[in-house]
Each structure stands twice: as structure tokens, then as C-alpha cells.
Design goal:
With about 230 residues, the protein is α+β, with helices and mostly antiparallel strands. It has eight helices and four strands. It has a domain of about 130 residues. It is elongated and about 95 Å long.
Length: about 230
């Protein structure tokens, strides 16, 4: 009994004789690969035709890999967007809550802030962290800028005046609030990456805030860990 694709056999054989791949013929004529394989078992391809098929296979493989990379990147992009949207939903509920702001400030201070001395101070090389610290200190404790000083710790090849201007612009504070600049002499004769702007320290002359932040953060962590089994 002849198959329903039999009338296409001569066309399929002709394409194969020209060096077309089975996959390509399958796509053109919509004939099952198993049927084509049976028809082509006695078809001999020349060396040049085999080389053409080999090169086409390589190109197809490269194309498929590029397509896979694009697909994975798109999937990752979609997942990141979902995460961002979920974060926005959460933040919209808590961003105006002063108690939560104070807790987040306390936790940041527990990790990054100075616990010794008679002031409340925090240093970092990331402007975003310092903007957050400065802003929340102003919101929660009504701290005025004239009560806050700024100090820089720089590498030997960095220009103190330029770095003051950089941090002044980033943090939106007057240049007049910048005090001492410390230079790390261990970095003499070594080149600094252009993206590194040193460490800026924000110093608030109020030890009471430091004490409160440390107590809040430590007690919060302690209470959470003690109740993990509840």
C-alpha cells in the first residue's frame, strides 16, 4: 500500500540529491522524518554535498544557541520585573512608616555604623547607602544639616577638593560641612580605579542616637531569633 506522501517522493529525492538535509526537506514537504529516512537510505551524497550539510548544521547550531540565549535572557528579564513589581508593592505599604524606617536604619547601623566614640557616624563608599542614612536621620530624628559633619578617607592619588565636590553633589550637602580628609599613605604609587571615590563618613554629634540605634537593632535581632521556634 502506497503512503499518502508517495506522490511527493520524487520531489523529496530530488531535493536530497541536491544536498538538502532531511530536516530541511521535512519542513518543505511536511513529510515525516521516518518516511524520508526510508526513502533516502540508498541516496549517496557527494563529498561536497556532505560538507555543505555539515556547514549548514554548524550555522543552525549557532543560530539555535543564540536563540536559546535570547530566550533565557528574556525569561530572566521577566523574572526580575516580577521581583521589582513585588518589591514596589511592599515598599508602597511601609515607606512612610517612621517606625519601620527607624528599624531599617538601626539594622544598617548595626552592620556599618560606628559603635565606639561619642558620636553617631557611618562611613561607606556607596552613595546610595549614605543618602539613605542621611535622609532617614533627618526624617526620624529631625536632624539638621548644620549638626552633621562629613569626612573623607581617600587613596594617595585622589584629589581631596575634587572628591569633596563629588560627595557634596551626590549627597546634596554644602561643601562647608566637609571637614578633615585622611589619605591612606599605603596606596602611594598605586593607581585608583576611576569609579572609586573613597569613603565618606557622615558624623552626627549625638551619641544618644547611636545608643538607641544599637539597642533597637540588637534587641530586634535577639527577639526574632528567640521566637524562631514559635
Amino acid at each position: 500500500m502506497k503512503s499518502k506522501w508517495f506522490e511527493l517522493k520524487s520531489q523529496a529525492l530530488s531535493l536530497r540529491g541536491k544536498g538538502r538535509s532531511i530536516r530541511n526537506i521535512e519542513n518543505i514537504l511536511a513529510i515525516p522524518r521516518s518516511t524520508l529516512s526510508g526513502w533516502f537510505k540508498d541516496v549517496k551524497l557527494t563529498k561536497s554535498q556532505k560538507e555543505i550539510l555539515k556547514q549548514r548544521h554548524k550555522k543552525a547550531l549557532v543560530k539555535a544557541r543564540k536563540g536559546a540565549v535570547k530566550w533565557h535572557n528574556k525569561q530572566k528579564e521577566d523574572r526580575l520585573k516580577i521581583a521589582e513589581n513585588e518589591a514596589d508593592k511592599t515598599l508602597s505599604k511601609i515607606i512612610k512608616n517612621h517606625e519601620i524606617l527607624e528599624l531599617s536604619l538601626a539594622l544598617l547601623y548595626l552592620g556599618e555604623g560606628a559603635k565606639a566614640g561619642s558620636t553617631t557616624s557611618l562611613g561607606n563608599s556607596d552613595p546610595l547607602i549614605l543618602k539613605f542614612f542621611l535622609r532617614v536621620m533627618q526624617i526620624v530624628y529631625n536632624l539638621k544639616i548644620d549638626k552633621i559633619s562629613f569626612y573623607l578617607h581617600l587613596r594617595a592619588d585622589q584629589n581631596p577638593e575634587l572628591m569633596k565636590k563629588y560627595w557634596s553633589k551626590e549627597l546634596k550637602v554644602p561643601l562647608s560641612r566637609f571637614r578633615k580628609v585622611s589619605i591612606d599613605k599605603r596606596t602611594i604609587k598605586t593607581k585608583t580605579y576611576s569609579y572609586y571615590k573613597g569613603v565618606c563618613v557622615i558624623d552626627c554629634a549625638n551619641v544618644a542616637i547611636q545608643r538607641k540605634l544599637v539597642y533597637i537593632s540588637r534587641k530586634f535581632c535577639q527577639k526574632v531569633t528567640e521566637n524562631l521556634g514559635d
